[in-house]
């Protein structure tokens, strides 16, 4: 009985240590990917940067493409909590917003916030897709998931405000899918030097022009 109690008490500690190790690896890997690029950031280099063995990297996260995907996933939501983006409070508030224009304004703020976190590692992922078959498959999945999210927004928005005449739900989803590509944030904010609030306003104005 005492042994069972000890096991029950030890399990949360082991899980917390494993989570901390994973977070440390992904943080170190993200910095390395951004500095060196995907090809040059080798698994031994990732392990050294995290202060762990290569076996620990594999056991905690997986192979190199898995590590990159882990870095991307954390950047999308801002943490390593297994809660999807659409279940997050800011997304829930956007869905609950009754006013169509306010919905787009909320969405623009979310997209700008995600873009600020994700666009650097997104560009690394784009380059990795051209060099690693596993990363390429993950990249394709990311694009498919992004389109699913765009379609979900289009459905939600159409229930609040009829789409313009001649614009189908599928076309609306495609437009949203293009606009939420993190490369747009990277080009305008990182490369062209736009303030984030300017990007946010441009996104809201552009999306409103198509959907309202």
Protein described:
This protein has about 210 residues and is mainly alpha-helical. Helix content is about 80%, strand content about 0%.
Properties at a glance:
212 residues; mainly alpha; 79% helix; elongated; single chain
Short description:
This protein is an all-alpha fold. Helix content is 79%, strand content 0%. It has ten helices and no strands.
Number of helices: 10
Terminal residue distance:
65 Å
Order of helices and strands: HHHHHHHHHH
- Biggest β-sheet description: none
Strand content: under 5%
Number of strands: 0
**Rg result:** 20 Å
Shape: elongated
Percentage of residues in helical conformation: over 70%
Low-confidence stretches: none
Mean pLDDT, all residues: 92
Structural class: mainly alpha
Fold blueprint:
Elements: H1 2-36, H2 43-50, H3 54-60, H4 64-77, H5 89-96, H6 100-129, H7 133-160, H8 169-179, H9 182-191, H10 196-211
Helix pairs in contact: 1-2, 1-4, 4-6, 5-6, 6-7, 6-9, 6-10, 7-8, 8-10
